[in-house]
Automatic annotation (TrEMBL):
A Pfam cross-reference name: cNMP_binding
Signal sequence extent: none
Naturally occurring in which organism (per UniProt): Echinicola soli
Stated name of the protein: Crp/Fnr family transcriptional regulator
Domain Cyclic nucleotide-binding: 12-71
Length: 191
């Protein structure tokens, strides 16, 4: 019998009984989105944290000039939201949208807190996921500050295996903070 992707994710950190996992599932809601569907607009309340079961999402922000800056991609087994807006119940400063048809398990902050009270080891799970996310963000910032475009490109390939085949080159360039021309030179040099 195939195990649920969410249970596999959780059990990388904490073990659950079948009964505990049943309780976990009661707090989540399965949601499906279409390609190009915006899940969270800048300025909206971030009501959900999403666990991506299938598909691809991105977190981005438009600047005053209309230029898109991509902060994160969320593919299978990734969590994605505007973390600040979600945890502080504030307006989102980011946009979350689907790059492919996407199937998720969504969780509200209230359900997350309730779940942690009902199954305390879930608090350990979420804490470790948050710490890992913070470490990944710190590495991304340091890579951005101290690496050249080629190193940032290789870092992207290691963090998101298979992503390059799933998104347009303009999005790769936006994530790396380089021009499309620079990205073309990088990919040609790699070939």
């Amino acid at each position: 019998m195939n195990q649920h992707p969410l249970r596999i994710q959780i059990e990388e950190i904490v073990k659950l009984t079948d009964g505990e996992f049943k309780v976990v599932l009661e707090h989540f809601r399965q949601r499906t989105f279409k390609k190009h569907q915006i899940v969270l607009h800048q300025g909206d309340e971030a009501r959900y944290d999403y666990f991506v079961m299938e598909g691809l999402m991105k977190v981005s922000r438009l600047d005053e000039d209309g230029k898109e800056h991509i902060l994160q991609f969320g593919m299978e087994n990734w969590w994605i939201t505007d973390a600040e807006a979600f945890h502080r119940r504030a307006q989102s400063t980011l946009t979350v949208d689907c790059l492919e048809d996407t199937r998720t398990m969504s969780l509200t902050l209230e359900d997350k807190e309730k779940l942690c009270r009902e199954i305390p080891k879930m608090q350990t799970f979420f804490l470790k996921k948050t710490i890992n996310g913070y470490i990944a963000l710190q590495k991304r910032i340091l890579c951005f500050l101290s690496s050249n475009a080629k190193d940032r490109y290789h870092n992207l390939l290691s963090i998101y295996p298979g992503l390059i085949q799933r998104i347009p080159k303009a999005m790769v360039a936006s994530y790396l903070g380089v021009s499309r021309e620079t990205l073309s030179r990088l990919t040609k040099a790699e070939a």
